Amino acid sequence: METRELYKQKYQAQMNEWTSKLDVMKAQADQLTVQAKLDVKRHVDAVQAKFDAAKAKLKDIAEASDDKWDGVVREVDRTWRDLKAAADGAFEAMKNHKQD
Hints:
Blueprint: H1 3-30, H2 34-63, H3 69-99
């Protein structure tokens, strides 16, 4: 199988996983107090924005020309790291509010 297709499958699987994680995150946020929801909302919104950006990168993988491939891979990998960092921040914020 072509490398490009393997990358696309890899990130599509990650999109499916992150869709579930984002749903869990939103459900957990709904269970917080009103003030905690306000505090956590910016984190959840940041994760959603990073998720949307990562989703758009799947299109870049499919459309990348051979001479742009390495740059696209680096950009996609960076986007996924950003998504994970935003999600970690959101989960940490929710965890802190659950302990209150």
